[in-house]
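[09:14] KT: can someone run the structure on this one? pasting the chain below
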Amino acid sequence: QVRLVESGGGLVQAGGSLRLSCAASGLIFRMYDMGWFRQAPGKEREFVSDSNWSGGRTSYADSVKGRFTISRDNAKNTVYLQMNSLKPEDTAVYFCAAKLVNSKNYFYWGQGTQVTVSS
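[09:31] RB: done, structure tokens below
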């Protein structure tokens, strides 16, 4: 049974930082690309960042580029999202997701962790 469990969300003031973690189990972690997505109230889920299986290739949404950093530790089956210079518009539920290397769609999703940025 595959599980993705996010943690690290919370309430932070604008300009602050948070580090999200996503612990994976039930899969061979190094065979999966990992992504972070978010969904704000009343909005559709949107892409935030992703990492290939090794961490050697990453990408970011324009809205977070230069502020967020994705990383992964394959020995710990964990992917991270370091979020700096947070803005109120970053407020959302953040989800991690996994897809097999070279596949198109994310297949496994976590339950999400709430990030709230106050102004």
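[09:33] KT: thanks! The two ends are 40 Å apart (CA to CA).
[09:34] RB: yep, looked fine to me
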